[in-house]
Q: What sequence folds into this?
């Protein structure tokens, strides 16, 4: 009997791996049991036989099992799990989140790709999930979106990436496909915009370099400093701003989730699930038009003329865990889709549910 602890954040990935082994008959369903605690990963753990943690240890105690001795034996045999975290610095919380954490090279380093290929081979990595946009751009520009060595890449489709990377290309895509769009031009080509206007980087991500400009003096100053910026129509925000998860499988099944959000230091610090037919129809239409395969994050505002998209982020966003907790498991679905496993059913979360982003502290 193999026992899995289903308490930690990696539990859903373990369960997906077990389901693959079951389907290939490499492992028997009857030879595996998961230990759960409370309601954490309750739905996911239904895929395997499971038992409550307290009941499990009570049963071991009745059988006079020497837990300390057994745990030491297991630790020596299985001292590493199969999830690795990577960053270019160890001055972050990654080393506390991942038991296997390593420092990689910046993507601009000439040895970046060869170093990554060596790590993939040396550690028998099966999948890479790029999380930062600069690295995604690098993989796209160097035609490495399918695989790095033996490891397959888990990203959105190439068309979604190329359109989402460039905010002017995003608007041109929306316009050419008769989808609502904000008027947008290169700041270098606009001398007298209608105020207020949004000035921002054409290629950057996040909200750190976005300016709402109210007058020509400020406009010309920012223009002189950032001639490569775009000038975008300011979309009214009386009904709020929305961040939306959009997943489309290789079989063209589309799943969506929309949050009305409030930003905290550039991140979604608070959000409420919204069930809006106009927004959902727009997201589904966009996913089909962009020929999406995978997951993206869409930013929009609900205006008098309906929902208007102003950004497409072609990656797993910072709200991926919130979405997962509400049952929108786009990371898991992406893995299932890549492994040719039937997607788990999706039941949309109820409108009105909210999330709050907090932070953990670590010491060493």
A:
């Amino acid at each position: 009997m193999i026992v899995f602890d289903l308490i930690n954040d990696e539990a859903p990935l373990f369960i997906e791996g077990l389901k693959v082994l079951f389907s290939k008959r490499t492992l028997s369903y009857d030879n595996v049991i998961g230990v759960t605690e409370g309601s954490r990963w309750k739905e996911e753990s239904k895929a395997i036989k499971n038992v409550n943690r307290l009941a499990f240890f009570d049963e071991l105690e009745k059988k006079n099992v020497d837990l300390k001795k057994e745990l030491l034996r297991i630790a020596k045999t299985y001292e590493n799990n199969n999830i690795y975290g990577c960053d270019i610095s160890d001055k972050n919380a990654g080393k506390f989140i991942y038991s296997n954490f390593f420092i990689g090279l910046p993507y601009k380093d000439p040895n970046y790709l060869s170093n990554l290929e060596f790590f993939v081979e040396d550690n028998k990595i099966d999948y890479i999930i790029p999380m930062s946009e600069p690295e995604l751009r690098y993989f796209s520009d160097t035609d490495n979106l399918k695989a790095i060595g033996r490891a397959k890449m888990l990203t959105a489709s190439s068309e979604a990436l190329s359109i989402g990377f460039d905010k002017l290309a995003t608007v041109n895509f929306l316009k050419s496909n008769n989808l609502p769009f904000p008027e947008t031009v290169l700041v270098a080509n606009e001398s007298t915009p209608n105020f207020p206007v949004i000035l921002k980087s054409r290629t950057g991500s996040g909200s750190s370099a976005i300016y709402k400009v109210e007058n020509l003096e400020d406009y010309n100053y920012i223009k002189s400093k950032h001639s490569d910026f775009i000038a975008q129509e300011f979309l009214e925000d009386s009904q709020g701003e929305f961040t939306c998860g959009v997943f489309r499988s290789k079989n063209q099944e589309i799943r969506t989730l929309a949050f009305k959000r409030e930003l905290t230091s550039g991140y979604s610090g608070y959000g409420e699930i919204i069930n809006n037919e106009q927004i959902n129809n727009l997201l589904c239409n966009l996913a089909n038009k962009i020929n999406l395969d995978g997951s993206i994050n869409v930013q929009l505002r609900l205006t008098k003329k309906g929902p208007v998209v102003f950004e497409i982020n072609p990656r797993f966003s910072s709200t991926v865990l919130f979405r997962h907790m509400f049952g929108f498991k786009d990371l898991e679905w992406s893995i299932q889709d890549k492994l040719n496993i039937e997607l788990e059913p999706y039941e949309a979360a109820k409108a009105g549910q909210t999330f709050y982003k907090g932070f953990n502290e670590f010491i060493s």
Remarks:
- The chain has twelve helices and 18 strands.
